Amino acid sequence: MSFFRNSVVQGDSWIAFIGSGLWTYYEPGFEPAIGLVLGAVGIASNPAPFFRKKARNLTPEEKIALRDKWRPTFKDFFLRAARDKFHTDIIVHEVARVDDYPNTDEKEKGISSWFRVGFMGTYDRGVLLGLRWTYLNKE
């Protein structure tokens, strides 16, 4: 859920819980108890957005150090794959819908949550992928 939607659900759950608690105190009965339970379930099932772990903020030096650390690992893997004639196809996932792979709804409109592309190489800040290859010339 987005931060805004999460905040709204969390706030409304607290309002329902407190309101039902007051209602139960002044008029004990079955209905206020349901409100208490539903408010508690809303609070428990929706984590508070204010206590969420904050994203890592890296300095430019730390980013460069991490890139330099991982670059040889990825380059070696892709070079070995090319040398040993492994398939160099890569499946790209949308992180928000990673559980949809490989099952997709054919009738769903929009871009797929995953697709296959050909690996072409690496460069300073990532990998080079090829989409819709028709032929490849070696010069």
Can you write the helix and strand succession as a string? Answer: HHHEEE
Termini, distance in Å? 50 Å
Q: What amount of the residues lies in strands?
A: 5-15%
Label the overall shape.
Answer: elongated
Largest sheet: 3 strands, antiparallel
Structural summary, described in words:
With 139 residues, this protein is of the alpha+beta class. The chain folds into 2 domains: 3-51; 60-130, no CATH class. It is 46% helix and 14% strand. Strands 1-2-3 form a 3-stranded antiparallel sheet. Helix 1 (3-26) packs antiparallel against helix 2. The longest helix is centred in the first third of the chain and has 24 residues, at 3-26.
Write the layout of secondary structure elements.
Elements: H1 3-26, H2 30-45, H3 60-83, E1 89-93, E2 114-123, E3 126-130
Key terms:
single chain, about 140 residues, alpha+beta, 2 domains, three-stranded antiparallel sheet, about 15% strand, elongated
Question: What is the gist of this entry?
Answer:
The chain is 46% helix and 14% strand.
